[in-house]
Amino acid sequence: MMRTFSFKRAFSSPPTSNPNLLSSLQLNHLLQLCSNSKSLSPGKQLHQHIILCGLDRHPFMLTKLVQMYADCGDLGSARALFDELSQPNVFAWTAILGFCSRNGLSDECVRTYREMRLKGVPPDKYVFPKVFKACGQLLWFQVGIQVHKDVFVYGCEFDLQVCNSLIDMYSKSGDVGSGRRVFDEMVERDVLSWNSMISGYVCNGFLEFAVGLLDSMRTRGFEPDIVTWNTVMDAYCRMGICDEAWEIFEQIKEPNIISWTTLISGYSRIGNHEKSSWIFREMMSRRKVFPDLDSLASVLVSCRHLGALVLGREIHGYGIRTADPSSFYKSAGPALLTMYARCKRMQEAVNVFESMDRFDAVTWNAMILGFVDLGAGDLALECFSKMQRSGGIMNNQTTISTVLPACDLKSGKQIHAYVTKNSFSSVIPVWNALIHMYSKCGSIGTAYSIFSNMISRDIVSWNTMIGGFGMHGLGKSALQLLQDMNVSDIRPNSLTFTSALSACSHSGLVDEGVELFHSMTRDFGFTPGMEHFSCVVDLLARADRLEDAAGFVERMPVKPNKHIWSALLAACRDRQNVSVAKMAAGQLFQLEPENAGNYVTLSNIYARAGRWDDALVVRKQMEDTGLVKSSGYSWI
What we know:
Oligomer: single chain
Radius of gyration: 33 Å
Number of strands: 0
């Protein structure tokens, strides 16, 4: 209100020497007000007044007009006036550079800087951050290095904002080492400096360094802000230790939507979809922060894996009510479509497909994945064929990786030939999908040949090949591959050990599997998860060592869940071990008292052992609990 009042007063109080015209000082002041408030219409009125004053050819006033038009978003007028300047100074150039930087015209920003240098105008500390931002967005690393040299030439190497922008540019260009050197040589830092360096580490995969830098930041007396916390949370989530991110989240007084979305997507990526959806519901119940498109898309991924149709529909309704439908379907449409498909609601999946951009490969990829989730491989391949015939839609690596699981050996070989002929030779996910396809189709030799000839591999490559060997009962080959992996630069993860343990189980390598389990902690420093304990139980049970399996479960450092006890009970049913079955069923009665199947299984085990009285006791216990026998079980 005060700014508007001052603006009006300036117009209504002309200088005493001329009752009709404003002074240069007043015009300068009013132009600055227009720039600060992005008020284009009053700025144009001032421009007319300047013409009346005869000041429209004055270099100083022309420069102020260039700045005003650029700040108000009118590049055409700013450029036209700029071209009227015979020798534009650094302030005029900075105005044009600033507009380009703010509006994402990165290549234009760099071209303008080059033109400025050719004209012999020396840049200052306000110019460099805009150019470095453009170089970072364009990934023009070599150009950034040349501009960095100009920083030294013109004595700006110690300016805070210049250094911050340099860190960001180097980080986005993948040279986090140079960014760190700039950071270490800074004579002063602010919170943005620390945030830029931490973000650089996270974006380039140096997650432990990012977390370590947080400790250094606090030691140096800088208090992290919401950007710091969100970035470090992202680091922990990318490391797969989302519980650490959750602990940080609880320290934030007012988490924003990025804080919530980081947790939702983080837990979803590590497969903890229950926690991901719970966090989303918690965010909604607090009603302080409301979901954006990213958070909706992230939680829909969890809905797909959980088969949470009700929550998925609620999110669908919320999204089309609160967001532009085209934006909603572009962002969350793929996750929504695959969620409906996983829940066997194909008509709703098709409706989402129809609402999405049919000329975007992402739309088709989602539909193909939906059919794959349904187990409808023929429909997935038909959808893939329609995509090829549509014209104008290019396959990408996701298309190939998504359709390969639907292939039989014949169609898989055809896509393999397509991959070889086209530009996918260095795309690791495509080759990983080919390894999986050949493994499941029985061609383990071809799968291993592909793996061996890959120029580079990621963790998925190793896990897929280890899993393939396990699928074919080649446990020793799987263990050998794990050893080879250990001497490579790829560190095993949770899935690696699960695949290797499963391979031992399917190959009868009991002692080797138990030894591998113990080596997880001893040699790899890895804390076993519930899935690894479950693999060992299955390993021992398959070898008919049920007493050993029961002892293993009782010695577990964490409380066994229902899946562990269910695996043990199922093994007892197959091998008719009454004593272990009684123990496992007793635990399951406590963990899931409403599951009638556990009572039925124990009763059947008693009956086959001729212990009819015990079988009747279990049946009576089931009836007293109010359970109804599930169909498909027999009491005989």
